[in-house]
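Appendix C reproduces, verbatim, an entry submitted by the partner laboratory led by Prof. M.T., so that reviewers can inspect both the input and the predicted structure.
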Amino acid sequence: MVMKALFEAGFPAVTKLSVFGRGKQRGIKVGNVTYDELPKDLLMIVIPLKDKDFVVETIMDAARTGDKGQFGDGKIFVTKVEENYTISSGRKEV
């Protein structure tokens, strides 16, 4: 749902990785078995600073379970990208 929401909002360039991890809930317990490494999707997207609030809201709206959300809905980390280069052209992007 997040990938579709980003695409429809005009942000089609996303990297999606299948990863394993756990959140504050420390995995899940089914019977006597504890699964402490759960399959998750990691999305990476680089956007202009001016679009940050819109993209964060788009992701939150698409990823949140119900009106209040629940454990496992995910996290969003925002960090600056100092530089980026297009390898094929050798050009530094601004």
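The helical segments are 2-8, 52-63. Additional entries are available on request from the coordinating office.
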